[in-house]
Amino acid sequence: MSARQCQLDDGTVVARGEAQRRLTIFSGYWFPTEGGAEAQLRQVAGNLHELGWSVTVVAGSSRQERARHVDDGTSRVLRIAPNSGRSDVRASGPALLAGAFSAGLRTRPDAVISSLVSSASIAGIAVARALGRPAILRLGGDDLHRHEGSLPGRMQGRFLVRGASLIVVNASHLAAQVKFFDPKGRTPTQVIRNGVVVPGLPSRRSRTGPTTVAYYTNGGLAKNDPAFIKLVRICPDIEFRAMGRTDHLPSSPNLTRLGWVTDVATELHRADAAINTSTSERSPNFCMQALAAGRPVLGFANGGLRDLADHWPSDVLTVPIGDVDGLAEVIRGSQLRKHVVTAVMPSPDDAALAWHDALTMAVRHR
After folding, report:
1. Measured between alpha carbons, how far is 235 from 291 in angstroms, rounded to an integer?
2. Residue 16, SS3?
3. Rounded distance between C-alpha atoms, residue 168 and residue 189, angstroms
4. What percent of the chain stands above pLDDT 70?
5. Mean pLDDT of 35-40
6. Residue 239 is inside which H or E element, if any?
7. H or E stretch at 191
């Protein structure tokens, strides 16, 4: 079987991209320019298309995005405009719920993915139940925790969790939120980590000059940057290279503000380690990229880093949240240039295959 072919459940070999089953993804927003949790699912959708799934996305729209039918080459996108007139991409409400349900019924899916928690994801579970199809609820963060405080929120969370055939999270620590709505564990939960692009072999580290540390920021002044700024100030002997939305970071002789970079792997190869100073983290993709590049990760013991450290304790070193002085000591005392990373990160193809297996198993046992 060649790389351009895949094998179906019955053993039949078909060309990749030849649609055999219909998958409908329900999402509150689905925009090519948006990052975050849905960026990973967009990548998975494209790879599932190559594995024989015909993918349709039912998503919310906004004032700026009025196109009802969009085809990105791998997924057909049906935009459902909200009645609230809100301009953000996370629009929700009765119109989105009704529109998504109606559009979803017309797609006649073999399986459904309801992503995050929104009116569209609720419609996805409802469509699956109406048609007798399996539905996978995908949680990319603390989506359900935010619905525990109100009666309508608890009703929505219970409907999503108990209506799903399977719940998928991208980090082990995120599974705990499901217990509030499903204390008896009736709906199975599976971890499918985000796929990261595995860079080429890491370049040889320089054995001279200061220790170099890579950092990523999306402008989160309240969540992660204050600790990083303090770290830069108390570690003048360490060279920091910051990527992302860096214009707000103060100037410092030992800080290089790179801004948005296209070749993250090259920057990671130039560093001795990567750091994460966030007080809360779900699934830290930048840290996973660093591990894939053969660089250890240091940072605060938030949920995402603790999850990685549980699996690869020698490659991910954590200190208590807020302990900047402790983090500085770890950077100076860890002999980073001699560290050999053994962690193996999943690639986008690995993530897509895991989703393909989960969907196939759900369809078989519906």
Report:
1. 23
2. coil
3. 6
4. 78
5. 65
6. strand 239-244
7. strand 189-191
Q: Which amino acid is at 75?
A: S
Residue 84 has pLDDT above 90, yes or no: no
How far is Cα 124 from Cα 113, in angstroms, rounded to an integer?
7
For residue 84, count other CB atoms closer than 10 A to its CB.
14
Whole-angstrom distance, CA of residue 89 vs CA of residue 91? 6
The confidence score (pLDDT) of residue 302 equals: 92
> Bridge partners of 60?
80
- Say if CB 148 and CB 290 are below 8 A apart: no
How does pLDDT run across 277-325, given as a tens digit for each residue?
Answer: 998 888 888 999 999 999 999 999 999 999 999 999 999 999 999 999 9
DSSP string, 280-297: --SS-HHHHHHHHTT--E
pLDDT higher than 50, residue 33: no
* Model confidence at 208: pLDDT above 80: no
209 strand-pairing partners? none
* The predicted structure's pLDDT at residue 63: 43
Q: Strand pairing partners for 300? A: 319
Of residues 161, 148, 72, the one with CA closest to residue 114: 161
DSSP β-ladder status, 69-71 and 75-80 = antiparallel
Q: What is residue 181's three-state secondary structure?
A: helix
For the residues of 84-140, what is the DSSP string, one character each? S---STT--SHHHHHHHHHHHHHH--SEEEEESSSHHHHHHHHHHHHHT--EEEEE-
Locate 362 and state its tokens: 């759900």
Other C-beta atoms closer than 10 Å to the C-beta of 115 total 27
Are the C-beta atoms of residues 52 and 6 closer than 8 Å to each other? yes
Which residues have CB under 8 Å from 264's CB, separation 6+? 243, 286, 289
306, burial (CB in 10 Å: exposed 0-12, middle 13-18, buried 19+): middle
Q: Are 27 and 57 in contact (CB under 8 A)?
A: yes
Q: Can you give the pLDDT at residue 66?
A: 44
Q: Copy the structure tokens of residue 87.
A: 């301009």
Question: Tokens 């405080």 map to which residue?
Answer: 149
Integer Cα distance of 108 and 106 in angstroms: 5
For the packed helices 151-163 and 119-131, what is the interaxial angle rounded to 10 degrees?
40
Q: Are the C-beta atoms of residues 5 and 15 closer than 8 Å to each other?
A: yes
